[in-house]
Inverse folding.
């Protein structure tokens, strides 16, 4: 089995699945090209995450990430929730397979988008378009990583020197 | 509860006869088949018996046309690189399809740096290539046409007889990768008309790590492994005799049972396909309704991702294969599924279901029941399903 016990537990029994009617904030990230899509719904009371729900299209890791993220975020003040990173989620899951880190670990990005959506609504700003990635790109800044060995590589290279993998097809 | 394996395309259990033959071979302590003394000759006799068993399964003219390899991948490499090296003086162009196994695709890609050019043909939405396209792709420079017999992801069988005829009219060598067909469907090298045929032992309930390449007598093919004179000077290296003995036995049983095996597998697949629409909605069947392997169904289950389905079915005691990018290690959508026109999202939800002679109709029913449970659970989690259902 490629996943550890914590990941499998959250995959088998995902927490906080679903939607929130009249949510105060919605965040949507991912793209089916890479494999995963996540939507996070928030209910905010007194600047605190009173309720959080998710929906995810994706692999075991993506579902576990979404579930763990909602557990971490639930009940947190917004200023605390804003500090949650994808790395925090992966650590709480006691690690994810390397090749899944950059594709399926998008939960915190979705949360931050949902918080931003809430704040924009409060400020009277029109709701932002959902962030959908149309190209194969990564959620971690401008850097690009080999999907096989996780070493940082130049954008557009066709061969990973580190693990000798051919990246020609689509990278 | 018994674990149900519906992933026979990845591997098959060994037949009882194969196990027996291999254990007997281990206990026999065979010597090196190339040795000239009595012990060597005894090993050589066992090797040649297996070669005859395999030759009979595919109706080769002579056992000498069979070269034992480490499996389908080596056979494909041998066919492609061996033909190209031996015939480079005649031309530098190869015709193939977009849906070949990576053993063919990557062998051809490697040759591009040596100045060879490749025309790779597209297929229709059920994964079939049009022989007319093959004929049109051929140039005076073409030395090889390589089109697989059946595809390991869709199960679709290609019109190889028509393609072989085109090749022969133009005096071009024709290779077909039949690694998923030989031993499952009746396969006759003379009827197909192929010059080179790759096959794999574990497809027909023999051991993994053994396979072979049929090379029609007279076809000019260089070895790709240099060394000794084993395998009639076509493949160097001391043979994997115990594995080969296992494959020989599996070939003999397959030759005897092929029609009955085909009918049994098709019965399981037909039951599955008949009952699937009553079990799940919004499933795309990628397998050709007529021209396909008797045991394989490629099904794209919309709005969910295949690795999740595979993991949840595993919890239910069922082993299935998925072509989701997330589960393949490459994190890329399958080239085969994109070639037949699936969207990335639909490719992500694709299962490869392959039945075996060890499955029963009761197991097919249990599999369908579990599949419904798992798909319902995952669709409830999926944002795509909610949107498609107009609930969002």
């Amino acid at each position: 089995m490629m996943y550890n016990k914590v990941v499998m537990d959250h995959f088998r029994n995902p927490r906080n699945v679903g939607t929130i009617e009249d949510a105060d904030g919605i965040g949507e990230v991912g793209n089916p090209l890479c494999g995963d899509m996540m939507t996070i719904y928030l209910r905010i009371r007194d600047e605190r995450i009173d309720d959080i729900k998710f929906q995810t299209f994706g692999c075991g890791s993506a579902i576990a990430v979404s579930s763990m993220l909602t557990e971490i975020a639930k009940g947190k003040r917004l200023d605390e929730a804003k500090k949650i990173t994808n790395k925090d989620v992966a650590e709480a899951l006691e690690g994810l397979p390397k090749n899944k880190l950059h594709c399926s670990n998008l939960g915190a990005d979705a949360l931050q988008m949902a918080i931003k959506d809430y704040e924009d609504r409060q400020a009277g700003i029109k709701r932002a378009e959902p962030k959908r990635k149309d190209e194969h790109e990564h959620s971690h800044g401008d850097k690009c990583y080999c999907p096989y060995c996780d070493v940082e590589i130049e954008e557009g290279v066709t061969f990973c020197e580190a693990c000798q993998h051919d990246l020609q097809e689509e990278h | 509860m018994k674990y149900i394996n519906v992933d026979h395309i990845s591997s098959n259990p060994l037949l009882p006869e194969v196990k027996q033959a291999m254990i007997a071979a281990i206990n026999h302590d065979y010597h090196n088949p190339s040795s000239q003394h009595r012990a060597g000759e005894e090993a050589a006799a066992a090797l040649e018996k297996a070669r005859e068993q395999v030759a009979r399964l595919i109706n080769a003219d002579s056992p000498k046309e069979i070269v034992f390899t480490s499996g389908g991948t080596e056979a494909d490499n041998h066919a492609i690189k061996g033909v190209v090296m031996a015939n480079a003086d005649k031309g530098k162009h190869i015709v193939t399809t977009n849906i070949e196994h990576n053993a063919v695709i990557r062998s051809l890609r490697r040759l591009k740096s040596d100045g060879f050019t490749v025309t790779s043909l597209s297929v229709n939405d059920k994964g079939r290539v049009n022989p007319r396209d093959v004929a049109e792709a051929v140039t005076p420079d073409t030395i090889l046409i390589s089109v697989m017999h059946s595809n390991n992801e869709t199960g679709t069988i290609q019109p190889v007889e028509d393609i072989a005829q085109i090749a022969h009219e133009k005096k071009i060598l024709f290779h077909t990768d039949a690694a998923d067909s030989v031993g499952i469907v009746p396969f006759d090298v003379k009827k197909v008309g192929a010059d080179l045929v790759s096959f794999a032992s574990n497809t027909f309930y023999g051991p993994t790590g053994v396979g072979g390449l049929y090379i029609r007598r007279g076809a000019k093919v260089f070895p790709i492994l240099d060394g000794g004179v084993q395998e009639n000077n076509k493949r160097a290296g001391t043979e994997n005799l115990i594995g080969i003995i296992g494959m020989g036995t599996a070939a003999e049983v397959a030759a005897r049972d092929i029609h009955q095996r085909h009918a049994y597998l098709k019965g399981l697949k037909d039951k599955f396909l008949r009952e699937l629409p009553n079990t799940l909605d919004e499933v795309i069947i990628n397998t050709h309704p007529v021209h396909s392997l008797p045991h394989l169904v490629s099904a794209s289950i919309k709005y969910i991702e295949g690795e999740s389905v595979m993991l949840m079915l595993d919890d239910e005691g069922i082993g299935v294969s998925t072509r989701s990018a997330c589960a393949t290690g490459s994190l890329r959508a399958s080239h085969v599924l994109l070639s037949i026109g699936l969207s990335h999202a639909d490719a992500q939800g694709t299962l490869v279901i392959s039945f075996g002679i060890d499955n029963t109709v009761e197991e097919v029913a249990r599999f369908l029941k579990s599949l419904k449970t798992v798909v319902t659970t995952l669709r409830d989690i999926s944002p795509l399903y909610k949107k498609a259902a107009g609930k969002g």
Remarks:
- Chain B has a mean pLDDT of 95.
- The first strand of chain B starts at residue 4 and ends at 5.
